[in-house]
Specification:
Elements lengths: L4 H30 L2 E3 L3 E5 L8 E6 L3 E7 L3 E5 L5 E5 L3 E3 L8 E5 L4 E4 L11 E3 L4 E4 L10 E5 L5 E5 L9 E3 H8 L13
Antiparallel strand pairs: 1-4, 1-7, 2-3, 4-5, 5-6, 8-11, 8-14, 9-10, 9-13, 11-12, 12-13
């Protein structure tokens, strides 16, 4: 097929556009794969294969950073910080960058910790109920002092509130570094007393 000069020039002009588009697609893919991936459900199962009927090999908690090793349309093959590998539903994972930026990490310390959209248990039902050991991002100066509520940031960037307290009725939280300093790698949680 013979092309006229103007058609050749037009096609030559499209080559840089195609390269630019391809570079944009690669950048989008690399952000999707390499952005910080975190579990967005209170607890999510890691499956042996990408199917809900598959055996569960482990679980991951809300906010836990995971490494994506392989992708399928509705599934991600991931590795948790404790080096368990398995398939999770793509809907159970959120892409977040800088989750703890400008915040202080804290860890849930009760079996069930309710997260509210306002600092009140009467206005709304809990947004989330998290298990023991979930690390959250505390905001502002809410950790200082003795206020009843501590402001936290959720993975989607929204503000939420968690109760301060040590009773079994309320949510108990404390700074992770304080927990680690108390328990360390060798102390048993059974040795905790009411002062900590």
């Amino acid at each position: 097929m013979l092309l006229r000069n103007s058609e050749k020039e037009l096609r030559m002009d499209l080559i840089p556009m195609k390269r630019l588009w391809a570079a944009g697609v690669l950048l989008l893919i690399s952000h999707t794969v390499f952005a910080s991936q975190r579990v967005s459900l209170p607890v999510t199962n890691l499956f042996k294969s990408p199917a809900l009927e598959s055996p569960v090999v482990s679980q991951a908690l809300y906010g836990e950073k995971i490494r994506v090793l392989q992708t399928k349309p509705h599934w991600l093959y991931v590795e948790t910080p404790d080096q368990y590998r398995g398939w999770v539903a793509r809907s159970a994972v959120a892409q977040t960058d800088h989750y703890y930026k400008n915040s202080q990490p804290l860890t849930t310390a009760n079996r069930q910790v309710h997260i509210y959209q306002t600092p009140s248990t009467a206005q709304h039902k809990p947004l989330l109920t998290l298990p023991f050991g979930v690390e959250l991002a505390a905001q502002g100066s809410s950790l200082q002092g003795q206020q009843r509520w501590i402001e936290v940031k959720l993975l989607d960037g929204k503000k939420a509130w968690i109760q301060r307290g040590i009773s079994t009725r309320g949510a108990t939280i404390f700074r992770f570094h304080r927990w680690y300093a108390f328990f360390g790698p060798s102390r048993s949680p059974n040795k905790i007393d009411s002062d900590h």
